[in-house]
Each structure stands twice: as structure tokens, then as C-alpha cells.
Request: fold
Amino acid sequence: MNVSEAEVQQYADAHTSPEPALLGQLVRETHLQTLMPRMLSGHFQGRLLSMLSHMVRPRRVLELGTFTGYSALCLAEGLAEDGELHTVEQNPELRSRVERYVQQAGLRGRVHLHIGDAEQLIPALTETWDMVFIDADKIRNRVYYELVLPRVRPGGFVLVDNVLWSGKVLPAYPLKAADKDGQAVRDFNDFVQQDERVENVFLPLRDGLFLVRKR
Reply:
């Protein structure tokens, strides 16, 4: 069969639960008012994040890389009754939008936004994490991973986004010397595959999603 990736994705989107109206509004606003709207998780991946969160029913979730808050709202959908989500974003200009959507979603007091450098902020968050979503500076993926993994409970999950890096991580692709992000993602993927502390599944979803479970 000669079926394109776009056709498969279109079919998958059509057979995935619809996007909540508030998230649809956030998508539109993100595309109209930000320079890099492609950083948004979007409908298909967002529904997967929500589904995984509902399966785990986490009490504590950590997200690195908030952007406009789409993925945080999706992950928050599956929180336990006493659950909370902490999300870290480096860009202070995004604060007002994220906080506005958190309030509209009825999650004020349960979703906590931290503005600053994730590498500095992570040690100050003294929770034990049931789920972590890493979608920040790709060069520092391993730094973030090593900072959070000791605080993830046994059986907890770490999700890492953009691990395909537009396919450039594939061995057949000759990475350019200037593509430091691509090399960092490739090295990180190889490291996780050899990490005996975890079990992992590499999902070729959108730009690649690593699903990692701490042993």
C-alpha cells in the first residue's frame, strides 16, 4: 500500500476524541499571537497526554516547557482529586496567557506556573513525581532527565517530546556540525535506551515521544 504519512495522520485525527473548546480557543490564539505556534502540542498529542494522565491518575505532575499552556491543561485533565501540576516556563511574557487559561479551565490552585530556568528551579520543587513531561531546551534533555528521575516514584513515568527531531536522529541522516540540538537529541535517545533504571518505548508520534517508566 502506498499511503502517505499525512493521510495516516488525517485518519488518526478523525478517529480521536475531539478537542475541548477551550483548548481550541487556545490553539487559535497561539497561532495568531506567537511567533512559533508549532511548539504547541496540538489536538492529537494533547489527547494522548490526557489519556495517559487519566490512566495514571497522578497526584503530582511536573512539566518542563509550558509555552502557552496547552499540554499542561491536557495533562491536568487526568489529575487525581488532590492532584497538582507544576509547569516551568522560561519566557515571562507567556505568564499572563497561561494563568488566564488555567483560570478559565477551573484549575487555579492546582496548576502552578514557575517562571525561570528549569535547571535552577527543579531542585527547589521537593515533590515526588508520578509523571514528568519534558518539552524544553533539547540540548539539556539529559540534564533535566537526571535532575527529575531521582524524584520520580518507582513505576512513575517520564515523557520526552521531540525525540525524532524531524527524523534527523535516524542513523542514515548526516547531522550537520551546527545542529547541536539534533546531536543532543540523538545522544539522549541512545542514553535512555541503555539506562537500566528505566523501561522505555519510543513512539513515532508527531515529532517523536519517548515514554519512559522508572523501574
Remarks:
- The first strand starts at residue 60 and ends at 64.
- DSSP finds eight helices and seven strands in the chain.
